[in-house]
């Protein structure tokens, strides 16, 4: 509808077309009525009354549609009666009734008869426009000191009236914008309709309602600086884009200021992602770069690298800034890669970035990263090789690949240009004749990685993925070197895959390999292979070995093991463990129990008590099974203790590959204290629980208020006439 109007006005008014949706509709109606007034005496004579009656009918039909859950249609006799009653109530000359009805239904095409015996507005936006116009021009017209904020408040509280509200606010004069922003602030702070208020306010800001007064627009933009607003806007997928000149730039600058003040806050990740959506990259970079240079080499380096991730600012900063970074932990190096770091070829920084990829510290970076290390990650990402185990086979026996390959092929091309030897990676990541339906792809790729880069975690994980693939879909296959070993300083990753598969249930093989290869890398790979592929009985016999191994692993190696186990458990469930494993593991370390939970399908983990589940939050995103168990229990029987458990995990406890929490929208309907606690600290809880609290607050408010806007209008005497 809006496009039709825009095209019409462009033909009539060229470059003077309004950019505000309310002004656009108003201009269209004025242009249309000007034309009709020239052609029809009735329209010319009764134009003001015609516009008033049409606006009344917009309100009348919109209010009726809400109250009766209808479609805005009205029988002709009732429509005639409504117009007559309105003219009587507002003391207008009723002799013009027939002329007005004819004009409304014939000359002004807003009302039409699509179903015999009824009338309705031609399209719903026109009904909403005229309803808004009636509310703006006539609500409280006969009351002294009427608070127009009451109209705004009551529309904001009712999602049904959102589009009408957008038209209504568009009628506001510049001297009304400050009051409108104040009303929205009051509604936000009341917290009775947390989602509806913010959705409405965001739409008004995006519509350009406040552009007439910069101070009012900035005030409206600041409505979204509180924690609840940031979380809601960040996680909403159907809100309109907020242009920079309509408050977007101001909001982004204020969000950046909050981040600079508290860079280590739990809110930083979502604040900065929202700010970047609203910003130009150049503005973001100009703010971030000096802060990053100040933080380089300090304890804040990791924090400011993570802040750069959404914008990939480190890529535009160039090798000079990368060279200033200390990159003293694997997490810092992975964050630099995620932030777009590109180092000079052959430099220590480039070596550090590549090492982070090969050691498994960057595998959960979900976006494409630039540079040599980024390309290696792109073509060897474990998620890709897990996905290959899940592909379907078509009728001709070919495997259906998921997603386009062009980006991966481009990365292979750049790697070949960098070093022709890397052609081997692309060759081995494809099945050749006779290899389809076997594990050759995983084993041969892992062997190629080992040959090119030396023994590394990434190659081992690819091999274990192949070993863990469904034996009913994939026969064991792939290349081997004679007299090679699975573990040790020179592992053959093809042999690791095949021997692991062959010895799933052979306890003596697992005992031998554990004893024979005591180095940290071998022990970590041994644990990953055991937990991901061994039969449950075999695994239980070696829990003491798992405990011993994880207790001795360096922090970086243990972190890579934990994340790889989490990924395999979440994405590849060909051999789930029974929950009874946890009973046997009751006396094992928390780190061992955490690894086991990745491969157990039970959602409640009944064998683990709440303190254990809560303490497991120390493992971050790799503790998603414990978080899910706490969430399941909280959904069944909410309690302050369980709420504290959820709080331990905070807002960023899951990644895109782990199962989503399932929280019923009604779970907190009768838990007002819990709702208040969550709304008081939105960044202390997972988003699913925040949304449940918001839903409960909205429903509670709806039950306490008059259900429909026409009832509010009647009770507060907004209009002289009475709907009947």
How is the topology of this model organized?
Layout: H1 2-13, H2 21-39, H3 41-45, H4 47-68, E1 74-75, H5 76-89, H6 97-107, E2 111-112, E3 118-121, H7 124-138, H8 149-156, H9 162-170, H10 174-190, H11 194-207, H12 214-221, H13 227-235, H14 248-261, H15 268-278, H16 281-295, H17 301-308, H18 313-317, H19 319-324, H20 330-338, H21 348-358, H22 371-380, H23 382-389, H24 406-418, H25 423-428, H26 440-453, H27 457-468, H28 493-502, H29 507-516, H30 520-533, H31 536-541, H32 543-552, H33 555-571, H34 581-584, H35 590-597, H36 610-615, H37 624-636, H38 640-649, H39 672-680, H40 687-704, H41 709-715
Antiparallel strand pairs: 1-3, 2-3
Helix pairs in contact: 1-2, 4-5, 4-7, 7-9, 8-10, 9-11, 10-11, 10-12, 11-13, 13-15, 14-15, 16-17, 17-20, 20-21, 21-22, 22-24, 23-27, 26-27, 26-28, 27-28, 27-30, 30-32, 30-33, 37-38, 39-40
Describe the structure in brief.
The protein is 62% helix and 1% strand. The protein has 724 residues and is mainly alpha-helical. Strands 1-3-2 form a 3-stranded antiparallel beta sheet.
Attribute tags:
single chain, 3-stranded antiparallel β-sheet, 3 strands
Shape: elongated
Helix content: 55-70%
How many strand units?
A: 3
Strand content bin: under 5%
Could you tell me how far the N terminus lies from the C terminus, measured between alpha carbons in angstroms? 31 Å
């Amino acid at each position: 509808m809006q496009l039709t109007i825009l095209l019409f006005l462009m033909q009539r008014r060229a470059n003077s077309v309004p950019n505000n949706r309310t002004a656009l509709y108003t201009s269209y109606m004025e242009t249309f009525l000007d034309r009709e007034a020239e052609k029809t005496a009735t329209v010319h004579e009764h134009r003001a009354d015609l516009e008033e009656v049409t606006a009344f009918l917009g309100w009348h039909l919109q209010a009726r549609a809400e109250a009766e859950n209808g479609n805005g249609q009205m029988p002709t006799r009732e429509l005639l009666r409504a117009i007559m009653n309105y003219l009587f109530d507002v003391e207008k000359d009723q002799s013009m009734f027939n002329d007005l009805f004819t004009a409304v239904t014939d000359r002004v095409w807003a009302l039409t008869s699509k179903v015999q015996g009824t009338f309705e507005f031609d399209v719903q936006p026109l009904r909403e426009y005229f309803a808004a116009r009636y509310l703006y021009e006539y609500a409280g017209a006969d009351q002294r000191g009427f608070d127009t904020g009451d109209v705004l408040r009551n529309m904001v509280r009712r999602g049904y009236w959102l589009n009408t509200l957008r038209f209504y606010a568009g009628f506001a004069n510049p001297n009304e914008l400050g009051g409108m922003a104040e009303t929205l602030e009051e509604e936000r702070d009341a917290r009775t309709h947390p989602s509806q208020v913010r959705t409405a306010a965001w739409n008004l800001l995006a519509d350009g309602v406040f552009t007439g007064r910069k101070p009012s627009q900035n005030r409206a933009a600041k409505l979204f600086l509180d924690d609840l607003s940031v979380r809601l806007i960040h996680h909403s997928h159907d809100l309109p884009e907020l242009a920079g000149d309509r408050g977007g730039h101001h909001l982004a600058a204020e969000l950046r200021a909050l981040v600079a003040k508290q860079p280590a806050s739990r809110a930083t990740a979502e604040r900065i992602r929202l700010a970047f959506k609203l910003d130009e990259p150049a503005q973001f970079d100009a703010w971030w770069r000096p802060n990053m240079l100040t933080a380089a080499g300090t304890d804040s380096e990791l924090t400011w690298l993570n802040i750069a991730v959404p914008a990939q600012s480190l890529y535009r900063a160039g090798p000079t800034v990368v060279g200033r970074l200390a990159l003293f932990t694997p997490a810092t190096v992975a964050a630099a890669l995620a932030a777009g770091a590109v180092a000079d070829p052959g430099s220590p920084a480039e070596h550090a970035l590549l090492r982070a990829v090969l050691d498994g510290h960057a595998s959960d970076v979900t976006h494409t990263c630039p540079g040599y290390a980024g390309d290696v990650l792109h073509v060897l990402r474990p998620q890709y090789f897990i996905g290959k185990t899940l592909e379907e086979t078509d009728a001709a026996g070919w495997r259906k690949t998921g997603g386009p390959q062009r980006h991966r092929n481009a990365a292979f091309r750049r790697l070949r240009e960098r070093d022709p030897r890397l052609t081997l990676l692309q060759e081995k990541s494809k099945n050749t004749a006779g290899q389809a339906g076997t594990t050759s792809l995983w084993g041969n790729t892992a062997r190629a990685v080992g040959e090119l880069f030396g023994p590394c975690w990434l190659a081992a994980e690819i091999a274990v993925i192949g070993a863990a693939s469904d034996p009913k879909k994939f026969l064991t296959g792939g290349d081997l070197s004679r007299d090679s070993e699975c573990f040790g300083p020179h592992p053959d990753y093809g042999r690791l895959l095949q021997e692991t598969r062959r010895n799933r249930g052979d306890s003596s093989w697992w005992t031998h390999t554990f004893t024979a290869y005591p180095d940290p890398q071998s022990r970590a790979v041994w644990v990953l292979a055991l937990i991901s592929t061994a039969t449950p009985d075999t695994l239980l016999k070696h829990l003491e070995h798992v405990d011993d191994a994880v207790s001795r692993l360096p922090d970086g190696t243990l972190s890579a093991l934990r994340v790889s186990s989490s990924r395999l458990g979440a994405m590849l469930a060909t051999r789930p463990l029974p929950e009874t494993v946890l009973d046997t593991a009751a006396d094992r370390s928390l780190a061992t129990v955490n690894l086991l939970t990745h491969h157990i399908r039970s959602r409640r983990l009944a064998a683990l008590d709440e303190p254990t589940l809560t303490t497991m939050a120390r493992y971050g995103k790799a503790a998603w099974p414990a978080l899910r168990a706490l969430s399941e229990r909280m959904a069944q029987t909410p309690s302050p203790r369980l709420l504290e458990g959820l709080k331990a995990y905070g807002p960023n406890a899951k990644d895109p590959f782990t199962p989503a929490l399932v929280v019923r929208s009604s779970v907190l309907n009768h838990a007002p204290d819990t709702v208040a606690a969550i709304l008081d600290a939105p960044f202390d809880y997972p988003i699913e629980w925040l949304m449940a609290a918001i839903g409960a607050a909205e429903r509670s408010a709806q039950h306490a208020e008059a259900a429909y806007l026409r009832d509010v209008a009647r009770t507060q005497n907004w209009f002289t006439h009475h709907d009947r």
